Predict the structure.
Amino acid sequence: MADGWDGYISRLIEAGAFRGGNSMGDGLLLRRNPTGAASLSPIVGYLIITAPNLGEAENFVSDNPVYLAGGTVERRYMVKDEFHSHRTNRRDVAPFKQTEPII
């Protein structure tokens, strides 16, 4: 990993906050009615972290390499829905708490 990612991921791991993530390639924005569709910034990757609340999750943004380069970092809660609950009944999938933000 380049551009500060090694140190950033290490910090998340040391804090016990890192739960996963991945880079993302090209994709498509598909809408049934594309008229007036807002242009979205491409998503280039995601991280799943755990934090007691969104405020605490913000503590991990200040040295995020994308943020430092002037990019956008979103934070969102991971919602435990019925599909997720069904999948987490499998032994090979670790469940997430509903309050885990994603940045």
The two ends are 18 Å apart (CA to CA). Residues 81 and 100 are 13 Å apart (CA to CA). The longest strand covers residues 18-23.
